[in-house]
Amino acid sequence: MEAVVNNVVGFHTGTVYEDINTFLNSFDSINTSKGYEYNLRTFYMWFKGKPVETLNSDDLHIRNADMLKYRKYLESHEADYSNGTINRMIAAIQSLYVFLETNDYDVKSAVTKIKKLSDDSERSGFFHASEIEQIPSILMGTVKGFEKTMLVKMAWTTSFRKTSLLSIEWDDIVSNEDTGNYKVTTIGKGGKKHSVDIPVELYEELLHMKEIDYYAKYQDNKVFHLSTTTIQAMMDYIKAKLNISDVRNIVFHSFRNFASMFGTLEELKKHYNHSSIGVANKYYGRDEKNKSSDIGLRISDKIEDSIFEELSKDQLIALIRLQHEGSVFQMKRDAKTMISSV
User: Fold this and answer.
1) Same structural domain for residues 136 and 229?
2) CB atoms < 10 A from the CB of 291, how many?
3) Within this chain, do residues 90 and 202 fall inside the same structural domain, yes or no?
4) How many domains does the chain have?
5) Phi-psi bin for 114: left (phi > 0), alpha (psi -120 to 50), beta?
6) pTM score above 0.70
């Protein structure tokens, strides 16, 4: 019995890692525990360049300035973290330091307190179709203009996130014999594999990048070679050229939102690789009669505005009535205004 007791005592080494594990195991939810562990590992690799297993007491000393620097680092990270995600990553550190201070570590949890970033669940605004049409001509005259143009075309066609687009390799684009188009596959948010069809014409445009002189120096099989700084400067340039106000919150993610005009909720769930229709709901788009093709192909199918002129009056009224009731109500209000102004 004494040997068993001694063995149990032997496991208690009093290391920082052991106490961090105790902290993580104190949560009822295993998802919370795993999330906090990931966030803490990310922080200490940035802060000390160490895995949590090798931390000592001296490594725990932190200043408020360090927290602010870390938040700035997360805001500019290529992973394009949302404000909500950054707040959660910071909260894990704050919670740990309350635990450490309570357990007599020489730390002050108060220094980890920084103001939360504003809720940005609706942070990315929407491009108008007329703006999307102008963007290629705006970018073509810039440095790496053709590559930038192909990046944004892929962005609004596939609705892949920026990090996913930048990670695409040429081998990830294959012919889809079932549809006669090309299929692009990437690893999306949460490590989920995601595939979207793109038209043959878009793939052929992508291949033209290989003919550009500077492109020959890249031997990594990646399709795109644009830094996050370059992409941010590109977005600023687009907004300036199109006179887009900051109030509209146009960011790179706005290209992803563009697909919302081209499908039903069920189609958008698949296109965005969302786990449920509830998640897709904030990207709600209009119904379309053409349900046979993927949204990525539908976006590339250019239809001229003059198509409406080919409809009879009865066809046009029938088309209006097929739209979402909110859209119909707004059209009725606009129609009433137009009639009264005559």
Assistant:
1) yes
2) 11
3) no
4) 3
5) beta
6) no
Shared-domain flag, residues 151 and 99: no
Query: E strands within the chain?
Result: 173-176, 181-187, 193-198
For 219, which DSSP code?
Answer: -
Q: What is the CATH number of the domain that holds 282?
A: 1.10.443.10
Strand order in the sheet with 173-176: 173-176, 181-187, 193-198
Helices 325-341 and 313-321: crossing angle in degrees, nearest 10, is: 130
Q: pLDDT (tens digit, 0 to 9) for every residue of the chain, 342 residues total?
A: 444 444 443 344 568 999 999 999 998 888 888 889 999 999 999 999 999 999 999 999 999 999 999 998 888 775 667 777 889 999 999 999 999 999 999 999 999 999 988 765 555 788 887 898 899 999 999 999 999 999 999 998 888 888 889 999 999 999 988 878 899 998 765 566 778 888 899 999 999 999 999 999 999 999 999 998 899 999 999 999 999 988 888 888 888 877 655 544 455 455 445 444 343 444 444 333 333 456 555 555 566 778 888 888 888 888 887 776 656 767 787 788 888 876
Give yes or no: residues 141 and 99 share one domain. Answer: no
What does the alpha-carbon distance between residue 335 and residue 250 come to, in Å, rounded to a whole number?
30
**Residue 191 shares a structural domain with residue 69:** no
119 in a structural domain: no
Say if residue 164 is in the same domain as residue 107. Answer: no
* Distance between CA atoms of residues 236 and 241, nearest Å: 9
Q: Is residue 124 part of a domain?
A: no
Task: List, in order, residues 6 or more apart from 139 with CB less than 8 Å away.
Answer: 145, 148, 149, 152, 234, 237, 238
Q: Position of tokens 């309350």?
A: 98
Query: Domain of 11?
Result: 2-112
% helix / strand / coil in the chain, to the nearest 5? 65, 5, 30
Residue 73 identity (one-letter amino acid):
Y
Cα–Cα nearest to 35, from 85, 82, 80, 76: 85
CA distance 106 to 61: 8
Question: Which of 112, 139, 171 delimits the end of a domain?
Answer: 112
Q: Which two tokens stand for residue 82?
A: 């949302």
